[in-house]
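Sample intake sheet
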Amino acid sequence: MWANLTAMTSASRNFGRWATAAIWLATPFVAGPCLAHALDPRSPLFQHTATVGLWAFWALGLIAALVPSTVSLTAIRIIAPASLATTIWAVLASTDRADASSSVALAITSLVSVVALCAFVGDRFVNGSSYGDERRMPLRAPAPLLFGPIELAWSAVVVGIAAGPLLLATRQWVSGAIIVAIGWTAAAVCARALHGLSQRWLVFVPAGVVVVDRMVLADALLVQRQRVATIAIANMGAAASDDTDLTAGAPGPRLRIALSSPELIVPASSRLRRSEPIEPYEVSSVLTVPSRPGWALAEARSRRLIS
């Protein structure tokens, strides 16, 4: 069973490596005519600005897809859904020309968005930045951020970058300049916040296992391999009294890492209570939620952390 899981994991990594780039390469050919038709009634300056911007975003997305890293993961997960939003706008703006090509454009941009957001791609990209004999497992996003905050941050990045230049292209110089200053600043802040979600991992290293999550930990928690008692899927119905929850409210099966002896952790400071001192405390077991718990168990087994 574990051999089959390892083979499936390897195949999934290859999928994550090439699928996004392969689909992304097709987007100008399938979505380009739809976008060109939607831009046709606009002024030449607006058309040129939008065209240059679209090609720049596409080139940036292609580079991100071909060079996997945590930065590339954040970039492609912003750009790919933006291509879908842009295509939806183009289709709605061209209701007089709704045909099969519009449906194909929507289908391809939807597909590239789904692929960019899937766990296979996240796994491959975060490991593009790994060091040596290190295996990173992305952690799932906290549930309180899934419905609202993440979407608002993404909208601020996309709209913040595009709105100002497009206003300038319509010769609204004052409002365009103001929106550029405000929008690009907001985009930088929100992009940094979204990038924080790409930097949350469960990491397997030769020395043991590490939990890296600045949402709940001020410093990464390293559990040396000789101090790992067990790694298993936690009982969803009843957590042990000594389990320390490091999931940040993320949904899904929780992975329980039990320690043979207590380990000291430093919790992250709350933004509402930054003036209060941070008190480290000892833990004997922790809970976390990797995007693919089965892969984490397979990796732990391959490294002889569990039998």
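Comment: DSSP finds nine helices and eight strands in the chain. The longest helix spans residues 2-39.
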